[in-house]
Design a protein that fits this description.
Length: 108
């Protein structure tokens, strides 16, 4: 399995619960590509700090791939979870474009 590294800004607490949750979600969602990925970096930020705002949570995912250039995607949403899920969808789409869709992939 690939390594997952969580990076947060000062406005988002990168505690063990969040890290465990994100690791589980990312491992599940990218399991089809686990042989091709060496590391996934998660960068979370609250761009409006403690003020309320639309789509102020940012998630940037960077997948480090074996023998290929890294892929980076970014998503903005009202919550960290939504931003992560949207970024994961973008990352999976990019990975499917690079490696092709697999017959045993559940969403094809």
């Amino acid at each position: 399995m690939f390594k997952i590294q969580l990076n947060t800004d000062k406005n988002i607490s990168g505690d063990e619960r969040l890290e465990s949750y994100l690791s589980s979600v990312i491992e599940d969602e990218l399991s089809l590509f686990s042989d091709d990925i060496t590391r996934v970096e998660i960068h979370l930020a609250d761009e409006n700090s403690h003020k309320k705002g639309e789509d102020d949570k940012r998630c940037m995912l960077e997948a480090r791939l074996k023998n290929r250039q890294p892929i980076a995607v970014t998503s903005h949403a009202n919550s960290v979870e939504k931003a992560v899920n949207d970024a994961l969808d973008k990352l999976k789409t990019s990975m499917e474009t690079i490696y092709g869709r697999s017959k045993d992939h559940p969403n094809t």
